[in-house]
Each structure stands twice: as C-alpha cells, then as structure tokens.
Design goal:
The chain is built from 9 helices and 7 strands. By secondary structure, it is of the alpha/beta class. The chain has a 7-stranded mixed β-sheet with strand order 3-2-1-4-5-7-6, sandwiched between helices. Helix 1 (10-34) packs across helix 7 (209-226), helix 5 packs across helix 7 (209-226) and helix 7 crosses helix 9 (237-247). The longest helix is centred in the N-terminal third of the chain and has 25 residues, at 10-34. It is globular.
C-alpha cells in the first residue's frame, strides 16, 4: 500500500468528515445499487475516521471499519461512542489482514481507498479470504487523471488542479483508478465487475467546492514542496480559497470529478 499522502492530522481528519458529507449521496447510491442491505455484515476497508463505516452500518445493520492509522481509528471509536453507536466496531490493521472474531463477511466496501494501493489487483485478491462465497466487494473510487476545462475559464482553478495532479503523481497515487478498475477486478479473480459512473461538477464561487479543493491541497502541499514543484508559501493557502471563489464567480467550473462505483462477487 502507498502511504496515505494526505496524512492523518487533525485538519485532515476534519477535511475527511466534510468530504464524507459531500459524497454521502453518491456512496449510498453505489452501495444500494450493488446490493448492500439489511441483515448483512460489512467490512469497510480504509475507513478513516469512520463516516463510511457509519453509512455501511446504517444500510446493513452492522459494520466493521478497518484502517492502518492509529489516529484515525481512535477518532472513529470516539465518534461512535459519542453517537451511541453499538452496531460498529473499529480495528487497526492493514487491508487483507485477518479480522479476529469477525470474518468472513457478506460484503467488503471502501471509498477512495484503492487509489492509494500500489497494486490494486493484489489488494483485491487479499480480500478473498475475508468474504463468504458469493460475497460482494463494492468500491467508490475517483479518477484523478483529469484536466479541468471550463467555459468560462478560471485560470486559478486550472492551476490548483494542476498542483493537485502533480502532488498525487509524486505520491504514487493511482491516477486511473476508475478507467482501469474493471481490469484490476478481473485480474484479482472476481470476474468482470459492474460499474456506475457518477460525475460531480460544481460551478461558480459560492458552493462547497472551492473550500474542499483548497483543503485537499493544504493536506497534500508538503509533497509539492518536497518535490520542488512549489513552496507552501507560494501556494498562499491562507487566501487561496477566497481567491478561487472570486476567480470562479463568473460561472467557471470549480470542481469536476468522475466518481464511480465498481462491484463484483466472490466466486
């Protein structure tokens, strides 16, 4: 697994929770379409601070969240306790590790996690022992190999997206996790998957997107600096969101993503 390039600090954990609110509708649609439903026991791999695990438990009744980050798991457990959730459990482990007293599961889900795997097919193969025969794998992933285009255009918006692409490339993140995913799933022994595309586009300067994009850049900015692309000071992060909102106020696109749901069953 590649290192999670955005880190696990407090600001990134806050960003993840905001992202989860933004993406919840897409993720829920994907998981429902795939067949996640009441009475299932679900494993959420790369669960972060718990939002996707909470969603899985809401749909299925019980979910286990797994993440390699001690900090993220601690936050997820605190949030579950604060919400009085008794239908979730959180485990610190690597993807594919045994989950004592829990496996095998009816389904394994994940959101924005396969993009961080150096060998996606090998990661998926490691999930076979954790699934019941006929069990589901369902992943919500994002394509990062995109160029932001817009009419009218925001030159600052294009620059921000260029910085993000460069940072993810430096980090070794899978840039074509959506377009290549059917092949990865097939090579992992799950057969050819079903895929649903969910475009996410926002224009103008008043919505959620400019803040979301800038906070993502903030989390990954140290990689840009260490690679000699641009310094943190040159990014001007303290004013970048306001500048991006102003730049997109003419109706320029401030966010363009290709999200996808991919699912298949264990033979």
């Amino acid at each position: 697994m590649a290192e999670y390039s955005l880190g696990h600090g407090a600001s990134e954990q806050t960003r993840l929770q905001k992202q989860a609110e933004y993406l919840r509708g897409i993720t829920e649609s994907i998981w429902r379409d795939a067949g996640i439903g009441s009475g299932m026991r679900v494993l959420d791999v790369g669960c972060g601070v718990g939002d996707s695990t909470f969603l899985a438990a809401d749909l299925a009744g019980y979910a286990v969240g797994l993440d390699r980050s001690e900090e993220a798991i601690a936050t997820a457990r605190q949030r579950a306790e604060a919400d009085g959730r008794t239908n979730v459990r959180f485990v610190q482990a690597e993807i594919g590790d045994p989950v004592p007293d829990e496996a095998p599961f009816d389904a394994i889900v994940g959101r924005y996690i396969l993009v961080h795997q150096r060998d996606i097919a090998a990661t998926l193969r490691s999930l076979h022992p954790l699934l019941l025969p006929g069990g589901l794998i369902v992943f919500h992933e994002v394509e990062l190999d995109l160029r932001l285009t817009s009419v009218p255009v925001s030159e600052l918006g294009r620059q921000v997206y260029q910085w993000l692409r460069q940072a993810f490339q430096v980090a070794g993140v899978q840039m074509q996790a959506v377009s290549q995913m059917p092949r990865f799933v097939y090579e992992s022994g799950f057969g050819w998957p079903q895929t649903r595309i969910h475009p996410l586009v926002e224009s103008g300067g008043n919505g959620f997107a400019p803040g979301y994009v800038v906070e993502t850049l903030r989390s990954i900015a140290p990689l840009l600096e260490s690679a000699g692309v641009v310094t943190v000071a040159e990014l001007g992060l303290d004013t970048l969101e306001a500048r991006l909102r102003e730049s997109c106020a003419n109706g320029a696109t401030s966010l363009a993503q290709v999200n996808a749901g991919v699912w298949a069953r264990r033979p």
